[in-house]
């Protein structure tokens, strides 16, 4: 039996993974050089969460899906031009700084307060989705902190699959060590689910969905509340690119036997 | 004055601490010595006695929560356990392994204690008391001459490395696996203080583990070699045909010979979702890179993979890197690998498997 769900997806925006990143020092602390001009995408694992949430909502008529995102308005608008065409959702933007260096606790506080204030949200039915790690800070703590602030004590991280059972319980597959999944049965909402890759491909662009979403996205962006994030005692001593350049030996003149012999010796060497 | 607690948990056997927990113990001992701070070790286990005995020589205070509720790694019980241990220890610095079990709860526990957390820590250094360090970025002031702790971690998926510090306490630090030597000493009888935990309502039951691979386990965290299969394995070969079954056989043959861990590029894993020919044993769990794992192995061998940046960021902690690719201008040749063999991986791996098999005999 289908159960109407209330799903909130927290998703940040990150520089396109193909872009070269160069750290720099801003008046507020470390940042990425020209980050505001770099092409941005929805955080990859959070995007998985959004697509999984939309699929769940579609299977359960009457469900409601919110997408909560913190970032500069201009970047949010740019990313929404693409994401809005993927799946239907109600966008809840919060204007704030971009990047991985602001403190996660402050980010979580803003997100939790925003979610708690969502009109019509029944927190006893809330499934809080997001990526288990962002592609910026990559700390795997923000969603957990939001959940804790909202009083949710059933939390799962590295989720690849959930199954809703007829009794409203949820079977959850979480990534654990050794390439395995831990299987849990949760009694039901409320729960926090930090998604890994999931199982769904990226949805195709649907212009009709895009038009429907954009009707609410633009007014929401105009009304987005600006916020600042406290440092909470966090300071950066240095931020630098790793020294990763290797002197590569390109071998073009060996036959497969010779290469195999070289590799076998290399693999066997201590 | 700082006080340190190292949170640890038992492994699947219940009798020993996990390797990553023992690594955290090493980090805790070193930091306590640097800061001249008292050290407490907290254990979460069904029966912590055997695990505690392995820590007797540390000289640390050992506290534990125990009981059937802690056989299962789950948020509600583990958070309650860690919270109770931290409250008893009154520590300002909380070290814990970045295991899936503690990664799930550590931030929540930090919040309950009005603390703060940083994760994926790869190094910890205590600044010498009285010696001012460099000014924090974005400030004009020199750093406080008070003793401080500086930690190193990665941002932007291993593309930027930062050293950071916090004035706020308690400060939780989750340590990446493989960054410290596991603590090892002869076991002796240890004194354990059992800590009582008020458990919340339990709504989650762990029913077990599921391995997505069929037959062969292809992810081995302790392997010395990471073998990466790229999308080229399933592309058309010089005869105009794909050879996916042969590719699967060659890859599994190499894994069997070397006990290597199997990684993959995103493009190869994604092919399954796009309905293309796939290697049946590959899933997103094998994915290395920007949206995948960043494993730690001594050596890595990439095959049929272009070595693009989003994939290679997952190789950050692979010490020696070699690649086999038909493309002499692939990403690996641009300073990302130590050696690149411009050759057909089908031929090379077939020969390599034969050599490794012969070597076994």
In a few lines, what is going on in this structure?
Chain A is of the alpha/beta class and 270 residues long. Chain A contains 6 helices and 15 strands.
Question: What is the element layout, followed by pairings?
Answer:
The complex is a heterodimer of chains A (270) and B (361).
Chain A: E1 6-10, E2 13-15, E3 23-26, E4 29-32, E5 40-42, H1 44-59, E6 64-71, H2 73-83, E7 90-95, H3 104-116, E8 126-131, H4 142-149, E9 155-164, E10 170-176, E11 180-186, E12 191-195, H5 207-223, E13 225-226, E14 234-240, E15 249-251, H6 256-268
Parallel strand pairs in A: 1-6, 1-8, 6-7, 7-13, 8-12, 9-12
Antiparallel strand pairs in A: 2-5, 3-4, 9-10, 10-11
Helix pairs in contact in A: 2-5, 3-4
Chain B: E1 4-9, H1 19-35, E2 39-45, H2 49-53, E3 61-66, H3 75-89, E4 93-97, H4 100-103, H5 106-112, E5 116-126, E6 149-155, E7 160-166, E8 171-175, E9 192-194, E10 204-210, E11 225-229, H6 244-258, E12 261-264, H7 266-273, E13 297-303, H8 309-312, E14 318-325, E15 339-342, H9 345-360
Parallel strand pairs in B: 1-2, 1-4, 2-3, 3-9, 4-8, 5-8, 11-12, 11-13, 13-14, 14-15
Antiparallel strand pairs in B: 5-6, 6-7
How would you describe this protein?
The complex is a heterodimer of chains A (270) and B (361). Chain A has helices at 44-59, 73-83, 104-116, 142-149, 207-223, 256-268, and strands at 6-10, 13-15, 23-26, 29-32, 40-42, 64-71, 90-95, 126-131, 155-164, 170-176, 180-186, 191-195, 225-226, 234-240, 249-251. With 270 residues, chain A is of the alpha/beta class. The radius of gyration of chain A is 21 Å and the shape is globular. Chain B is α/β, with parallel strands linked by helices and 361 residues long. Chain B has 2 domains: 4-194, Rossmann fold (3-Layer(aba) Sandwich), CATH 3.40.50.620; 225-360, TPP-binding domain (Rossmann fold). Chain B has helices at residues 19-35, 49-53, 75-89, 100-103, 106-112, 244-258, 266-273, 309-312, 345-360; strands spanning 4-9, 39-45, 61-66, 93-97, 116-126, 149-155, 160-166, 171-175, 192-194, 204-210, 225-229, 261-264, 297-303, 318-325, 339-342. The termini of chain B are far apart. β14 of chain A pairs antiparallel with β7 of chain B.
């Amino acid at each position: 039996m289908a159960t109407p769900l209330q799903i909130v997806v927290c998703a940040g925006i990150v520089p396109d993974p193909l872009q070269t990143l160069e750290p720099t020092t801003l008046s507020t602390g470390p940042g990425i050089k020209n980050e505001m001009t770099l092409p941005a995408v929805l955080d990859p694992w959070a995007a998985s969460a959004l697509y999984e949430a939309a699929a769940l909502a579609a299977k359960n008529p009457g469900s409601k899906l919110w997408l909560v995102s913190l970032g500069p308005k201009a970047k949010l608008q740019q990313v929404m031009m693409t994401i809005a065409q993927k799946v239907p959702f109600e966008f809840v933007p919060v204007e704030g700084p971009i990047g991985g260096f602001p403190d996660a606790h402050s980010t979580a506080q803003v997100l939790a307060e925003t979610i708690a204030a969502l009109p019509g949200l029944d927190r006893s039915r809330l499934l809080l989705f997001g990526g288990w790690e962002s592609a910026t800070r990559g700390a795997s703590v923000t969603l957990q902190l939001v959940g804790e602030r909202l009083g949710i004590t059933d939390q799962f991280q590295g989720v690849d699959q959930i199954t809703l059972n007829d009794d409203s319980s949820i079977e959850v597959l979480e990534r654990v060590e050794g390439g395995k999944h831990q299987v849990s049965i949760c009694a039901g909402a409320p729960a926090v689910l930090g998604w890994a890759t999931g199982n769904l491909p990226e949805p195709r662009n649907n212009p009709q969905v895009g038009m429907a979403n954009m009707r609410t996205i633009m007014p929401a962006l105009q009304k987005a509340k600006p916020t600042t994030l406290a440092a909470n005692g966090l300071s950066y001593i240095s931020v630098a690119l790793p020294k990763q350049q290797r002197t590569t030996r390109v071998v073009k003149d060996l036959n497969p036997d010779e290469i195999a012999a070289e590799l076998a010796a290399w693999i066997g060497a201590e | 004055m700082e006080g340190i607690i190292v949170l640890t948990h038992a492994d699947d056997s219940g009798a020993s601490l996990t390797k990553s927990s023992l690594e955290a113990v090493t980090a805790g001992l070193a930091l306590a010595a640097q800061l001249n701070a008292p050290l407490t070790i907290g254990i979460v286990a069904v029966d912590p006695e055997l695990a505690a005995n392995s820590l007797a020589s540390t000289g640390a205070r050992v506290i534990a929560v125990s009981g059937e509720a802690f056989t299962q790694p789950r948020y509600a019980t583990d958070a309650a356990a860690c919270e109770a241990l931290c409250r008893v220890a009154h520590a300002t610095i909380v070290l814990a392994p970045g295991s899936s079990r503690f990664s799930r709860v550590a931030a929540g526990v930090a919040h309950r204690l009005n603390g703060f957390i940083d994760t994926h820590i790869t190094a910890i250094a205590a600044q010498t008391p009285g010696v001012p360090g460099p000014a924090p970025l974005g400030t004009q002031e020199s750093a406080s001459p008070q003793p401080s702790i500086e930690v190193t971690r990665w941002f932007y998926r291993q593309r930027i490395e930062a050293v950071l510090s916090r004035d706020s306490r308690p400060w939780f630090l989750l340590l990446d696996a493989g960054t410290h030597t596991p603590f090892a000493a002869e076991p002796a009888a240890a004194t354990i203080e059992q800590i009582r935990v008020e458990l919340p309502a339990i709504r989650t039951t762990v029913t077990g583990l599921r391995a997505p691979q069929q037959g062969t386990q292809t992810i081995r965290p302790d392997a010395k070699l990471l073998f990466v299969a790229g999308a080229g394995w399933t592309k058309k070969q010089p005869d105009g045909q794909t050879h996916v079954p042969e590719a699967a056989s060659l890859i599994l043959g190499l894994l069997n010979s070397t006990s290597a861990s199997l990684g993959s590029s995103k493009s190869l894993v994604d092919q399954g979702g796009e309905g293309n020919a796939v290697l049946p044993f590959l899933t997103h769990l094998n994915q290395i890179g920007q949206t995948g794992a960043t494993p730690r192995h001594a050596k890595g061998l990439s095959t049929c993979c272009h070595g693009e940046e989003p994939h290679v960021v997952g190789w950050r902690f692979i010490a020696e890197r070699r690649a086999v690719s038909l493309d002499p201008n692939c990403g690996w040749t641009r300073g990302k690998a130590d050696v690149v063999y411009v050759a057909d991986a089908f031929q090379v791996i077939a020969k390599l498997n034969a050599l490794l098999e012969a070597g076994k005999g």
